[in-house]
Design a protein that fits this description.
Blueprint lengths: L1 H118 L3 E5 L11 H13 L7 E6 L14 E5 L2 H13 L3 E2 L5 E6 L3 H8 L2 H8 L5 E5 L3 E5 L5 E4 L2 H13 L1
Antiparallel strand pairs: 1-3, 1-5, 2-3, 4-5, 6-7, 7-8
Helix pairs in contact: 5-6
Organism: Mugilogobius chulae
Protein name: L1 transposable element RRM domain-containing protein
Keywords: Coiled coil
């Protein structure tokens, strides 16, 4: 029995010593693992820190570059805004100058138109004289005699000059060119026009049916021609009288005596249509 107890104690002591050795080995392994983990963690931390620092540096460089570009853009924007304001002021000045120039041009055009109209105040235009009738004679003399015969004047009017309109001679079947005639006396020109208006038909000694009109400037002629449609409608209205006043104003007198004045051809057409449908 004593031997068994001794053996049991010895066995327990051996087991205890073995467990202690195992525990020590485990502790040693644990310590080594922790040391390696710490070493790895430190290495990874350093690597991550380097990478983060590198990214931070790159990001900072990118931000600095972006800030520099933004600063340049701000400067350019400010410069462009300043230039735009300057140009806007200049444009406003130019627009004002254009308005003033337009007024000046309009005034000069009106003066030019008035001067041209004054230079034509003694002029007439004669339409319908066959081409070549004046051949072999002085044109002014030919026209003076033509007007005396056609208008039944006591004597030939004094004509300063006369000529066909400056354009290509007409072809076969085309109307002859008009005569532009400058009378020496304004009153003689007015007398001729009054006779032309009062005569239903004017026939020359050669048998040409002619018409006589004032020699208007191109601008006035276009403005007067714009009333053509209204005049055509008014011709169909019984009892309506009308006349085209200088420079371009249509006067209409209705059958009941009402008088209307029109400077707008479109308004005149509307009024004439109303009369024709009444």
């Amino acid at each position: 029995m004593p031997d068994l107890r001794k053996n049991a104690k010895a066995s327990e002591a051996g087991e205890s010593s073995g467990q202690t050795a195992i525990l020590q080995a485990i502790e040693t392994l644990r310590t080594e693992l922790l040391a390696k983990i710490d070493e790895k963690a430190e290495m990874q931390t350093d690597e991550m820190s380097r990478q983060i620092n590198g990214l931070r540096d790159e990001l900072k460089a990118s931000i600095d570059q972006a800030n520099a570009k933004a600063s340049m853009l701000d400067e350019r924007t400010a410069s462009l805004e300043e230039a735009a304001n300057t140009h806007s002021d200049k444009i406003a000045d130019l627009e004002q100058q254009v308005v003033e120039l337009q007024k000046e041009v309009a005034g000069l055009s009106a003066k030019t138109e008035d001067l041209e109209a004054r230079s034509r105040r003694c002029n007439l235009r004669i339409f319908g004289v066959k081409e070549g009738r004046e051949t072999g004679a002085k044109v002014s003399t030919f026209v003076a005699e033509l007007l005396q015969y056609t208008m039944q004047l006591d004597k030939p009017p004094v004509i300063d000059r006369a000529h066909r309109t400056i354009q290509q001679p007409p072809g076969d079947g085309q109307p002859p060119r008009a005569f532009v005639v400058k009378c020496h006396y304004y009153q003689e020109k007015e007398t001729i026009l009054q006779k032309a208006i009062s005569s239903r038909k004017l026939v020359t000694g050669d048998g040409d049916t002619v018409r006589v009109f004032p020699d208007y400037t191109p601008t006035v002629a276009r403005r007067r021609a714009a009333f053509g449609q209204a005049k055509q409608l008014l011709r169909q209205c019984e009892g309506v009288k009308y006349g085209l006043l200088y420079p371009a104003k249509l006067r209409i007198t209705t059958p009941d005596g009402e008088r209307k004045m029109f400077t707008d051809p479109a308004q005149a057409v509307l009024f004439a249509k109303g009369l024709s449908s009444a």
